[in-house]
């Protein structure tokens, strides 16, 4: 696999010429990475109008992922989500998008910026805010019930806990209604490289975003906007859509790392299957020892701490003692993420640490309930309103201004424009939120 961006930057840096251009560090080192941190100089191409080395590299990525077209983002999936929303809403009056309620807050911000109204599909049997366990039939029912066809269906899969939806069946339903399916696949870039290829584009999505930095070896911020055959109509507008929300100074460190990820993936293709098998083995071992794991995402290990009879403080102690930092640990769940860069010893270390944790009988916690909330004003109107910060205890019946999230996983409990209910207040307490931004009365 060729790495045109990296080759260009290395050659340029080795020349040690006069850098009479941005950035201000001129390649001199404070941090250590400055030599390779250039800008869109002659020959370096232009990210959102790529026709040279960046275009070549994006085309390499497109081939690897099997997409119709792939575009790089140096500002995460967050940028790609806004760009995808713009692409489906462009030229439409009063656009609406049918979205699963576990959408990341970036989706809400994108809706506010573009004047899109989300029409939410709520979870039926979910146990956590991050989860929105719906079937293709649920999407079918939701689409059937709407008077006005939405401009897209937006789902998150995998979710933060590692639950994957049946994208193929959902895509079939969307096709039947003639509505493009957009997938927030921020956590699933690697799915294209396991044997079954579970990547949303392969499964029939029109577009998706992947954070290359979450599960592949890219620097933080590296992401892809992928377009599938069913989203061909969006391909021409994609560069414009990304540049509408992006900085005009893309990071060439991130671009180089995206370029290198192509070569790394191609070289280590076999490793993806190995990681999947190793995580599967840990999961089986833990389950044989009374742990309860959730989710079906191959590279993620998520423990239900309550059902596993593990106190989070006991787990935190063991992880700390073994030098393990997990992705997320709260009172209810622990999430561990692996990748092809995980060392063989990492898998053993996590498994042994988990098996050594002291068990303590835990009482079931209150069932998770998440019902439809009254919308008082549009997302955009609420975000643009005068607002004030109040304590959660004083927020009953007030209208939410900023989407209220606990971070991670940044999934809003109440979305801007919705009226705060007693149930929302219970959820704020459950996710450790004390204050909330509400619209001024
Ligand atoms: C489900 C989901 N979508 C989108 C994002 C945003 O991704 P990024 O950090 O690459 O902008 C995140 C980030 O954590 C996420 O968990």
Chart the SSEs and their pairings.
Blueprint: H1 4-15, H2 53-65, E1 69-73, H3 76-89, E2 96-100, H4 105-114, E3 117-121, H5 136-145, E4 152-156, H6 167-177, E5 181-184, E6 207-211, H7 212-215, E7 223-227, H8 232-235, H9 238-245, H10 252-267, H11 269-288, E8 293-294, E9 300-304, H12 312-321, E10 328-329, E11 333-337, H13 344-356, H14 379-384, E12 387-391, H15 422-430, E13 435-439
Briefly say what this structure is.
By secondary structure, this protein is an alpha/beta fold.
Descriptive report:
With 441 residues, the chain is of the alpha/beta class. The protein folds into three domains: 4-93 and 168-267, Type I PLP-dependent aspartate aminotransferase-like (Major domain) (Aspartate Aminotransferase, domain 2, 3-Layer(aba) Sandwich), CATH 3.40.640.10; 269-356, Alpha-Beta Complex (Aspartate Aminotransferase, domain 1), CATH 3.90.1150; 379-439, Molybdopterin biosynthesis moea protein, domain 2 (Alpha-Beta Complex). It is 36% helix and 13% strand. It has helices at 4-15, 53-65, 76-89, 105-114, 136-145, 167-177, 212-215, 232-235, 238-245, 252-267, 269-288, 312-321, 344-356, 379-384, 422-430; strands at 69-73, 96-100, 117-121, 152-156, 181-184, 207-211, 223-227, 293-294, 300-304, 328-329, 333-337, 387-391, 435-439. The strands form three sheets. The chain has a seven-stranded mixed beta sheet, with helices on both faces. The longest helix is centred in the middle third of the chain and has 20 residues, at 269-288. The termini are far apart. The model has no long low-confidence stretch (mean pLDDT 95). The structure holds pyridoxal-5'-phosphate. Pyridoxal-5'-phosphate binds at residues 76-78, 104, 106, 156, 160, 184, 186-187, 211, 223, 409-410.
């Amino acid at each position: 696999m060729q790495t045109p961006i990296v080759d260009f930057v290395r050659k340029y840096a080795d020349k040690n010429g006069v850098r009479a251009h941005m950035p201000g560090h001129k390649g001199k080192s404070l941090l250590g990475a400055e030599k390779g941190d250039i800008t869109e100089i002659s020959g370096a191409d232009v990210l959102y109008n790529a026709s040279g080395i960046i275009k070549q590299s994006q085309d390499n990525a497109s081939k690897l992922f099997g997409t119709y077209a792939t575009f790089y983002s140096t500002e995460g999936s967050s940028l790609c989500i806004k760009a995808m929303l713009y692409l489906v809403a462009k030229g439409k009056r009063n656009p609406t998008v049918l979205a699963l309620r576990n959408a990341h807050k970036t989706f809400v911000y994108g809706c506010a910026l573009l004047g899109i109204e989300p029409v939410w599909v709520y979870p039926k049997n979910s146990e956590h805010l991050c989860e929105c366990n719906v079937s293709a039939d649920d999407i079918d029912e939701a689409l059937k019930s709407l008077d006005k066809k939405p401009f897209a269906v937006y789902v998150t899969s995998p979710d933060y806990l590692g639950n994957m939806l049946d994208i193929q069946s959902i895509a079939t339903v969307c096709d039947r209604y003639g509505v493009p399916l957009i997938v927030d696949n921020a956590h699933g870039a690697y799915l294209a490289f396991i044997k079954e290829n579970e990547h949303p584009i392969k499964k029939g999505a029109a577009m998706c975003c992947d954070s290359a930095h979450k599960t592949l070896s890219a620097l933080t911020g590296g992401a892809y906007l992928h377009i599938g055959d069913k989203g061909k109509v969006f391909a021409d507008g994609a560069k414009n859509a990304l540049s509408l929300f992006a900085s005009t100074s893309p990071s060439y460190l991130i671009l180089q790392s995206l370029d290198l990820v192509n070569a790394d993936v191609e070289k280590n293709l076999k490793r993806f299957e190995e990681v999947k098998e190793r995580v599967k083995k840990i999961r089986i071992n833990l389950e044989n020892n009374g742990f309860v794991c959730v989710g079906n995402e191959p590279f993620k290990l998520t423990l239900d701490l309550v059902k596993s009879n593990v106190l989070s403080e006991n787990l935190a102690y063991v992880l700390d003692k073994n030098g393990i930092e997990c992705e997320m640990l709260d009172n209810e769940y622990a999430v561990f993420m692996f990748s092809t860069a995980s060392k063989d010893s990492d898998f053993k270390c996590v498994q042994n640490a988990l098996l050594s944790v002291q068990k303590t009988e835990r009482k079931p916690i209150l069932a998770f309930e998440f019902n439809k909330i009254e919308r008082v004003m549009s997302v955009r109107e609420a975000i643009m309103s005068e607002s004030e910060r109040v304590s959660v205890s004083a927020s009953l019946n007030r209208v939410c201004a900023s989407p209220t999230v606990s971070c991670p996983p940044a999934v809003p409990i109440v979305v801007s424009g919705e009226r705060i209910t007693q149930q929302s207040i219970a959820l704020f307490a459950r996710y450790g939120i004390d204050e909330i931004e509400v619209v001024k009365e």
